[in-house]
Input
Amino acid sequence: MKKILVFFVTLTILLLVSSSDLISQPPSGCPPGTTNSILTTFTINGCDFEVQICWRCKVTSSPLVYSITSITQLTFCTPTVDLLEALDSIYVTLQNPTWLYTFCGDDIPPCSTDTYEFSEVRYNCFKKYQPSGTPLPPVRNFVCDYSTWCQKDYSACMLSPGNMQLTVINDWYQVGVPTCDTDEPNNPDPGKDSDCWLMKPDCD
Output
């Protein structure tokens, strides 16, 4: 009886540890430490781009941090919009109170009382993935190295309803040293990934 009791106690502990490990894992396609993600579409100058946004909400002294970890151009248009131009535009869109509230449910405080800090992360290195199909689906570009990125830190507060003041705490700076190829690869064969390449070569 005692051995059976010990067995069930041990099994319970193992199940709890396993459940904890599963809960602590980041969403698929997101960097370590991420707690949430969303797949959504933005239209930039008539072109539709599907992106995965990953984020970690504010904890104690650590601010909200978000990043775009994949981008797929769903439609083509004239004039064309390149990936970096699309990412620039989407990151600007994410800096509004509606998106900041969407991330973690936090309201931006009045400037007379406090500020809300957050950080944007832009990873340097991406791969291309060509899904299979007829006709061929659009190529997906996704982060292939989570150890190196550009970061910009902000604080925000509301001057009045609908009027947010955004202040740069630290302008773009590099974290880590990118080691991926500097030349953009051709689109890979269906069902294959390309080499890892430097989509974001600098933090300007």
Remarks:
- The CA atoms of residues 188 and 194 lie 5 Å apart.
- Strands lie at 36-44, 47-56, 64-73, 116-123, 125-130, 140-143, 149-160, 163-175, 192-193, 197-198.
- The radius of gyration is 21 Å.
- DSSP finds three helices and ten strands in the chain.
